[in-house]
Each structure stands twice: as C-alpha cells, then as structure tokens.
Amino acid sequence: MPTSKKGEGVPPPAAISAVGLRKSFGDKTVLDGIDLRIPTGSVFALLGPNGAGKTTVVKILSTLITADAGELRVGGHDVAAEPQAVRAAIGVTGQFSAVDGLITGEENMLLMADLQHLPRQEGRRVAAELLERFDLTDAAKKPASSYSGGMKRRLDLAMTLVGDPRIIFLDEPTTGLDPRSRHNMWQIIRELLADGVTVFLTTQYLEEADELADRIAVLHDGKIAAEGSSEELKRIVPGGHVRLRFTDPAAYRTAVATLHEADRDDDALALRVPSDGTQRELRSLLDRLDSAGIETDELSVHTPDLDDVFFALTGGTDKHKETAR
Ligand SMILES: Nc1ncnc2c1ncn2[C@@H]1O[C@H](COP(=O)(O)OP(=O)(O)OP(=O)(O)O)[C@@H](O)[C@H]1O
Questions:
Q1: Last residue in a domain, options 204, 235, 266
Q2: Closest atom of ligand 1 relative to the 219 alpha carbon
Q3: What tens digit of pLDDT does each residue of 97-111 get?
Q4: Cα–Cα dist 319/307, whole Å
C-alpha cells in the first residue's frame, strides 16, 4: 500500500499553512484563530461535526472567500496577496461540484481542459487517460446527469486533475456514497498520495480520517480541539487499556492481588489494566509483572477508537446528526 509516512530527518516543507485564521459571518464566529501546517506529500484530514466550519476553511484556503485574519500560505504563495498563483497550484472538489449534468462526462473533461488552456490534442489525451483511470470510459458519452453519486464524484475529481495540481482539497469526498464507492474513492486518494500530491480532506467520517490521513485535526467551536496522527489522538481520551489473559488460575489470582487497579473478568481469567499504551506505561506494567513472577499467556494493548476521541472532544452532541446526511 502506498504511504506518505516519512522517516526521520528534515521535515518536508509545508504545502499549506495557516496561522491565526479567523472568519466570522455577521456576529457568528466560525473560525476563531486556527493554526495548521500540512507537509508536502501528506494527507491531512479536518474533522468536525456539521456546521463546524470545515467547508469555510477549504473555501478560504482555495481563495473562494477571504479570511478576516490570519497568515495563510498554499503551495508557497500568500493566499491574500497571490490568489491567482494559489489557484494555479491547487485543485478543489467537493460539495460545490463542477460537474455539468447536461453534457457528457467526456465533454465535462474537455471543457475543463479548455479552461486549463491545454492544446486540443493534449486535452483529448489527458481527458481519455483520466476517464480510463477513474473507470469512466464506458460512461464517457453519456450525460453526467445519468451518473451515480460515486461516478459523479469520480468525474468531479478527474476534472480537478486535468491541470495536474500538486495540492488537492477534497471537501467531504465520500459523503453520501455507498461503502463500495467510498472504498474506491479511498483507493484513488491513496494513488494521488503515491504520486506525491498533498491532500487536504474534510470529512465527518472518522473511519475515513483513520484510513487515509497522516495527521488529523478536530475542529470544534471555531478552534482546533486536537491535532495529531490517529494513534496520537486515540491516546488522549480515556478508555485505553492493556488486557492480560491467563490460562493458569493461580497466575491469574497472583495478578489480581498485584494489579489492584485492574478490572477483573474471572470467567475469562482476564484483567483490564488502564493504560495510555505508551512505552513508559507498558514498561512499568511489565516490570511489575516480572517482579511478582507473573507470566501472562496473552497481552494486548487496546487504544480507544477515533469515535471515542471525536465525541469526547466535541461533547458528543452530534453523534446522531453525523450519520443523518
Ligand atoms: N456565507 C455564509 N453566510 C453566513 N453563514 C455562513 C456562510 N457560510 C457558512 N456559514 C455558517 O458557518 C458555519 C460553518 O459552515 P461550514 O459550511 O463551513 O461548516 P462545515 O463544517 O463544512 O459543515 P457541513 O459538514 O455541514 O458542510 C455554519 O454555521 C454555517 O451556517
């Protein structure tokens, strides 16, 4: 599987950065001082409940609307001072789809190639290649209005790629798609990443962020409530534990007597020891087991999932709303 995870060393330059990003609509503050730094060639997921301001961030960074304050750079360009250069460096797809339903998929692609000023032959070649890559060749001569939701999203993304942007904003790319189309889209995103493209993704789906993103930020109440890799985020909420299982009842009893803080499951001869899963805590637990001469038959580390993180950070108020779209 292609991956953008980088090794140690000099951090890659930021493809997108924001310092102190603010935006209000009337007296409603939507973004209340947001800092972001997205390394080149990585996938970043901005996660948040409905109305958190995800689309507003994308619109600002892609120059569709202006920020009230903040230093913003995309592709090495200042968003406020050089919006044209930013536009030339990026592709945007999402809730505001560029697909025209009245014309065919192919015509949509050719139109985009014209807008990008590609020579006619080159435009035809690029359109055909992308239609093929996105599995749309058979449907290319049909009106886009006849496409399924998944096909429309693929066409939308294919149109975005006509200009070969190195930074792509995907605003909720899989909202409303069935699981198979969602997995297709994920595969496409992974391929973009393998090509070195930087992807800024907004999503309401924790699983999506978990699957794709190198870094995830949770947007809540106008601020970044937490930011990190999926593993880092999972460590910040309670619920992590180490499970120890025994086959020898005597060893189990010794462990119960030693690890007072553990929850017991006497039927399964298993103990659940609260732990953040860090090396330090694991070492301390293993040292205690060793000192007491306890041998476990099975030891597993359980971290909370992103759902736990999301609902802990956003107060859980949108738990049901989240899937209702
Ligand atoms: N042009 C506008 N005028 C007034 N309010 C706006 C405008 N655009 C967005 N808002 C408000 O800003 C808030 C954030 O909207 P935004 O679309 O960025 O949220 P979101 O996180 O993308 O949500 P969703 O998942 O529902 O798309 C919402 O309360 C929305 O009503």
A1: 235
A2: 21
A3: 778 889 999 999 999
A4: 9
Residue 95's pLDDT is 65
Report whether residue 48 contacts ligand 1, using a CB cutoff of 6 Å: yes
Sequential DSSP letters for 199-234: EEEEES-HHHHHHH-SEEEEEETTEEEEEE-HHHHH
- Hey, whose CA ends up nearest to atom 1 of ligand 1? 25
Q: Is residue 311 part of a domain?
A: no
Q: Is residue 186 part of a domain?
A: yes
Tell me how many domains the chain contains: 2
User: Would you say residue 50 lies in a domain?
Assistant: yes
Name the β-bridge partners of 21: 34
Q: Is 50 in the pocket of ligand 1 (CB under 6 A)?
A: yes
Q: Given pLDDT bands bounded at 50, 70 and 90, which one contains residue 177?
A: confident
Closest C-alpha residue for ligand 1 atom 2:
25
Residue 135 inside a domain? The answer is: no
CA triplet 320, 322, 324: central angle to 5 degrees?
75
Domain CATH for 58: 3.40.50.300
Residue 75 has which token pair? 């592709």
Model pLDDT, residue 311: 76
For residue range 35-86, what is the model confidence (pLDDT) as tens digits? Answer: 999 999 999 999 988 889 999 999 999 999 999 999 999 999 999 999 999 9
| Domain span holding position 30 | 14-99+147-235
